[in-house]
Structure formats: structure tokens, C-alpha cells
């Protein structure tokens, strides 16, 4: 009996030791590098419509993270990243050939946006992967990044490298991995179907469902609508001062969601930040000013079709 205990003790001791060595290794070594196998990207000629549309998409999707106080796309500190993951700064993506996106080819830009892998093989855990964004939207963004818009004029600001915590490093070796580069064309949503356009905006483009579902831990990025508690809020996010703020229930539930809102109130709220009751919407819910009325109405039409979920944690009262 004593011997068995002793053996069990050794075994347990060895496991603990191995775990400790593993943890020390993960903590001290850099994040894993990935092979950069960039597929060909078709050459295209950017016209002013593409650039304008790319700029509009960028302002809806990327500005919040990349726009510096200076009004240039020089990158900045991201206060909304939880401390448990470490600290991160977005990158300078002005056209600078050494410090900005000037050192990327179009193909490498598309590859980064789809997979999350930079052209040096580093995976960027703190930037979303745009796996379901349409090929046209990706191309317009690239056309814009190559344009001579003033906010993209070359800047030599270099942002600090991310300081990933042990948790972030552990996640990057387990569940947080690059996404595969799409093997098929990703079409635009149909323009004659408001619900389909709304779904595309909520799931593929503006990532409403990421913040507005109860937890980042069980987001279903392949089938967004299968995310548990889809759009019912209560996800604990961080504001500009890194203080907690909950996302809210935007399903049609009348008690805890936005079931009593009108289309008009909704369109005004997401475009201006002013809602029917309560204070103006706070960071990280920044108004989507560049949305067209048609798009805002499409989001509303789509939200009418998602299941109403009663979820107390997603009630406005919880965000005094
Ligand atoms: C949630 C914040 C966030 C959003 C949204 C975001 N980014 Fe980023 N981006 C980052 C971070 C963080 C990095 C990496 C910085 C680093 O290297 O540590 C980065 C890196 C990049 C780089 C790589 C630059 C380099 O130095 O290698 C490019 C290009 C880029 N982003 C473009 C975009 C575009 C285009 C969009 C919108 C479609 C976008 N980003 C949306 C946070 C974000
Ligand atoms: C970065 C995270 C984030 C993203 C992305 C986001 N939201 Fe929000 N949203 C929030 C937070 C946090 C609040 C709560 C703000 C407050 O109470 O001041 C909020 C509040 C709201 C509200 C107000 C609800 C109420 O009861 O007052 C609506 C409506 C809303 N969001 C819709 C959307 C839509 C539609 C999208 C996509 C187009 C979206 N949000 C994208 C985080 C986000």
C-alpha cells in the first residue's frame, strides 16, 4: 500500500514537474511562427469608386483600432484588450515602405486579413480574421490602402510589439490559430434581399455578433448563428479606461432586448449612438456613422428574424 502511494506520488510529482516545465517554456518562448504560403492575388486596377467604398468599409471595420489621435493610420494602444491577455498596440498601416503597409504586397494583405498571419509569419491574435468578408470588400480595402488618402501618407511611427500574457500564449498554442485561406470565391450578399444583407453585415462584416453574444469563448465563427445565446448580450467588454462594460441584448425580446424599439429608433441609434432610453451609447459601441440608411434598415430587418432570447445579463439596466 505504502509503495503504491509512493509510486503514485512520484507519478503525480512528475506530471506537475512536466506541466511546470511546459508552462515555463510557453511563457518564455515567442508565439509560434507560421509558414507564409500566399496564393496569387489577381492584379486589378483601382478606380475612385472602389477606393471610396474601401475607405467607407475601412471606417466601419478597421478605424476604431488603427486610427491614431493624430488622424493618421499610425496605430495605437488598445485599451479594450483584457489585462489577462496582455497589452497590444495596433500597427502603423500608412503607406510607409518600412514601417507601414508599404512593405506588404496586395496578396500578403489579403492573406493577413483572411488568415491572421503577417508577412513575417507572425500570427496576430489581437486582430479579427475576416474569413467571411466578400472578395469585393477585401479588394476595395486593399485599393483604399494603396490610395493617396491623407490619413495613409507615410508615417515612420513604430508601435511597440504586443506583450502577450501567459494566457494569450497558451491560447495561441491551443485554440487561437490562424484561419485557413478560403479556397472558394466569397460572393457579395444579394442586393435585393434586406435580410440577407443584414445577416452579412451582422456576422461577416461588422462583427455585431462577436461583441453581442454572451461570451467570446464560444463564438462559432464558421456558423455565427449557432453561437450560444446569439446576440443576447451580457459579454463583459472593456471601455476606453479598461473598465468593464456589458454588451446588450439586441434580439427582439421585449423585456431584455430591443423588442419594443422601432426601425427608426434603431437606425438612429446605430448611426448616431443616441438611443430611445438611457445614455448615449458608450465605447466600444462606437456609432457606425458611415452606414447607409439602407444598410441600417437591413440590419434591423435581419434582427427581426433572429430568435428572441430572454437574457437578464443583456438588459440595459445592467449598464448604469
Ligand atoms: C480589434 C482591433 C483591430 C481591428 C478591428 C483591425 N486591426 Fe489590424 N491590427 C491590429 C493589431 C493589434 C495588429 C498587430 C500589431 C502587431 O504587429 O503587434 C494589426 C495589424 C495589422 C496589419 C499588419 C501590419 C504589420 O505591421 O505587419 C495590417 C495591414 C492591418 N492590421 C490592417 C487592418 C485592416 C485592413 C483592418 C480592417 C479590415 C484591421 N486591420 C482591423 C488590430 C486590429
Ligand atoms: C466592440 C464591441 C461591439 C460591437 C462590434 C458592436 N457592439 Fe453594439 N454594443 C456594445 C456595447 C458594449 C453596448 C452597450 C453600450 C452602452 O450601454 O453604453 C452596445 C449597445 C448596443 C445597442 C443598444 C442596446 C440598448 O438596449 O440600449 C444596440 C442597438 C447595438 N449595440 C447594436 C449593435 C449592432 C447592430 C452592431 C453591429 C453593426 C453592434 N452593436 C456592434 C458593443 C458592441
Description:
- By secondary structure, the protein is mainly alpha-helical.
- It has three domains: 1-30; 48-173, Cytochrome c-like domain (Cytochrome Bc1 Complex, Chain D, domain 2), CATH 1.10.760; 194-318, no CATH class.
- It contains ten helices and four strands.
- It has helices spanning 2-28, 48-61, 63-66, 106-115, 135-145, 166-173, 194-205, 208-212, 263-272, 293-303, and strands at residues 86-87, 163-164, 236-238, 244-246.
- A two-stranded antiparallel ribbon has the order 1-2. Strands 3-4 form a two-stranded antiparallel sheet.
- Strand 3 (236-238) and strand 4 (244-246) form a beta hairpin.
- Helix 7 packs across helix 10 and helix 9 (263-272) packs across helix 10.
- The longest helix is centred in the first third of the chain and has 27 residues, at 2-28.
- The radius of gyration is 22 Å and the shape is globular.
- The termini are far apart.
- 29% of the residues are buried.
- The site of one heme C has 21 residues, from helix 3 and helix 4.
